Amino acid sequence: DPLARIRNLSIVAHVDHGKSTLSDRILELTGAVDAREMREQYLDSMDIERERGITIKAQNVRVGWKGHTIHLIDTPGHVDFGYEVSRSLAACEGVVLLVDAAQGIEAQTLANAYQALEHDLEIVAALNKIDLPAADPDRYAAEIEKVLGVPADEILRISAKTGAGVAELLDAVCERIPPPKGEADAPLQGLIFDSYYDQYRGVVSAVRVFNGRLGSGARLRFMQAGRTHDVEEIGVRLPATTPVASLGPGEVGYLIAGIKDVAEARSGETVTEASRPAPEPLAGYQDPKPMVFCGLYPIDGDEFAALREALEKLRLNDASVTYQPETSGALGFGFRCGFLGLLHMEIVRERLEREFDLSLIATAPSVEYRAHLTDGGTVEVHNPSEMPPPQKLESIEEPYLQATILSPTEYTGTLMDLCQSRRGEMVRMEYLGPERLELVYRIPLAEVVMDFFDALKSRTKGYASLDYEPAGWETAELVKIDVLLNGVPVDAFSAIVHKSQAQEYGRRMTEKLRELIPRQMFDVPIQAAVGGRIIARETVKAKRKDVLSKCYGGDITRKRKLLEKQKEGKKRMKNIGRVEVPQEAFIQALRLE
Ligand code: GTP
């Protein structure tokens, strides 16, 4: 049986727990590649990922170990890519759960391990970094046994750095993880679990064959996208890309089929043979759904076309980003963009600025609301400006998350305060050991989107970790706040907030703007309003003296410089309600504290 010696697995680990180092060791030990060469060449190919320690694009490597063929399937390491993780796990029969022996398991790793259990995968747990003096493998083995039911005496103890225990880990993988099942004669069913766009080859997909045979001459039907493409190349990564004639059941490799758009080869897509199609696609496919939205505007209005082009290019590689042109009275022409989550948003924004050399203003992140109208209709609101007026509103629903926090017990109080102040409701609280705690809350996505992660980290000196998943919708008392300058609403500062927080938001925004908006020739009222009702007000007092008087009448070149600078600044002024607002004020005011 050719399947009996195949093992498909993914290494599940928290950032910095040693996944890359372990992958290096495995490649070295199995003789796949010179270890030093490899890190630069094959792993974490994007700069931003490397800097942030996030692996988004998978490299799926095939290695040999004592007569077995092992496919190491990479999973995206970040909380916003939960669905992608689930598709990668669907390609595996087991996982190696890698946990730092000086840190213990973290929230996202635990969530991924639970997912692995839901997929009925075998978990091979290993405590890494046992060479560290601070390592406490007994303690963390007990913890893993408690939360995942993996017997402590079956948990391996390794050092990816020194290589200690890594060969035993590979032996355990071959012994404990079951081989794949599948029928070679059945119609083809292959699971696409990752795709990226290559400038020269088009879309390159990672594929796991379940049934049938994926051959190099085949015409393929992509069952969810409903498209047909001819195979150009299939192959495996050793880790160098190596074409093969075909991939059979249980095998993992890459597929190139002349596809120009990653949206046609999404994670979860099933490929079959056009001439002999499988009756059904594999289960579990989902359309990616953006959860977090913001407006992106070029600081320099001339860069609008460049921003559009950059978004088009970026989408070639990341079909989960959505964008639509949007106009703001205050910020000009830009796009309303949708993201899988907050970190996804940050990554995209950073890539736009770095790889495409754009300077952008981002509006505050927001979530999608469902506004139910008095006439029975429902409107999806992605932007405060789309919010129907109060008299037409029956109710509003907002998306919720189930958030899991793992933390040392000493921070329990401050974490509960934090969750409560963000309208969270406790679902569960459990001790993982004498000093560690699991807290589970239902919490509005909008509250997490703002700065929850930063608040969590700063309250626990970085020791708490967070994972979350979508958890339905709930009706809430939400209001739209407008901020008015000299009586004119400024769209960029509008927000949808919970009623209980409206006052605070209004006060904070008006105070901030009072400091940011320069004095004009007249008094400028800054107001925050809900419906027609003013809930906060500040005033920028009219200026009394000419700007030159600041220079004590002295140095003439200094005066000239000041005038020049003023002229420069003028170009970047927006005129709102007769008030001249420097662009910098928008940037500052939209920055989250
Ligand atoms: P990202 O690539 O950032 O996602 O992290 P990762 O989980 O892949 O961790 P990585 O392999 O980069 O290791 C993180 C740090 O831990 C590095 O500085 C490694 O050198 C170190 N490290 C990994 N394994 C061991 C180990 O067994 N012992 C010791 N002492 N350090 C280790």
Using brief descriptors, characterize the structure shown:
593 residues; alpha+beta; six-stranded mixed β-sheet; binds guanosine-5'-triphosphate; hydrolase activity; translation elongation factor activity; hydrolase; EF-4
Written description of the protein model:
It comes from Acidiferrimicrobium australe. Its EC number is 3.6.5.n1. Belongs to the TRAFAC class translation factor GTPase superfamily. Classic translation factor GTPase family. LepA subfamily. The protein is α+β, with helices and mostly antiparallel strands. It contains 14 helices and 34 strands. The strands form seven sheets. Strands 11-10-16-7-8-15-12-13 form an eight-stranded antiparallel β-sheet. It has a six-stranded mixed β-sheet with strand order 2-3-1-4-5-6, with helices on both faces. Strands 22, 23, 24, 25, 26 and 27 form a six-stranded antiparallel β-sheet that branches. Strand 18 (about 320-330) and strand 19 (about 330-340) form a beta hairpin. Helix 1 (about 20-30) crosses helix 2 (about 35-40) and helix 12 (about 500-515) runs antiparallel to helix 14 (about 585-590). The longest helix has 18 residues, at about 500-515. It is globular. The N and C termini lie far apart (about 60 Å). Residues about 50-60 have low confidence and may be disordered. The structure holds guanosine-5'-triphosphate. Guanosine-5'-triphosphate binds near residues 18, 20, 21, 55 and 128.
